[in-house]
Predict the structure.
Amino acid sequence: MRLADGIRKHGFRKWYERELVHSHAHLVLTFLSSIGVFAIFAGAPRLRTLQDQALDLVTGLACAGVGLWALRRYLHLLSNAEMMAQQANCPACKTYGRLEVVQANAEDNDVQVRCRKCGHGWRISGQ
């Protein structure tokens, strides 16, 4: 979910929490994919037919591909959420995460925000 939409809909803290949960779901998928790859390697010596070997090869490549995609997605979502969280402190009163969207740029993830406590405005720039 884009930052501006997430702040408008849920608030910054809930957006951040959801991004962390979403990224860690990808980490779990990476872990499950690696278990699949290791299971295929463990069962490889017992294969008897060429068809079983080909099926295991295709399954192993699929598990590895999904695992690499999920790991990359996990790292992207986590780093993006952390970068936004580092910018969520009000420069004037140091309040964390109590902000509202003033203006959002549709092309990138840059958002003009305002502190709900003191009214100070600043820019949160995304990737």
Observations:
- Residues 3-124 form one domain.
- Residues 99 and 119 are 9 Å apart (CA to CA).
- The first strand starts at residue 99 and ends at 104.
- The two ends are 14 Å apart (CA to CA).
